[in-house]
Amino acid sequence: MTSLKYKNNQSVLVVIYAESTNRVLMLQRQDDSTFWQSVTGTLETNETPRETAIREVWEEIGLKIEENSTALFDCKESIEFEIFPHFRYKYAPNVTHCHEHWFLLTVEQEFEPILSEHLAYQWVFPEQAIQMTKSPNNAEAIKKYLMNGFPQYKRI
Prior knowledge:
By secondary structure, this protein is of the alpha+beta class. The chain is 20% helix and 33% strand.
């Protein structure tokens, strides 16, 4: 008898921002080609949100971040959101919400990501990224942290 492995409803959102162009990296989902988003991922057992953010950036776009990197900024903010109905099959029965921890990752310049979990990518200005994503929380993170020239955080 096989037991089903459900996704944890604790996750991270990593908004990636290029300093040289003031643009945001957006990724097109494989399981819904109309859905564009930043890097996201589920916490694994005994993993901190920061560890998850580092792992997910590596897995989704092939970018290696050192554990103590100041380029990865923990916003110290997390939100609870309703999981879209067409994605709920991945979670245990009756799980309808996810708790998401927000991070920002600043890179000096745009790069070509190595995609393993997405169909395509685009570097776009924050206003366009907000329009592209179906995720209200992804849009809110971009709006809150990037719409005013990224004043809350500067890469060291």
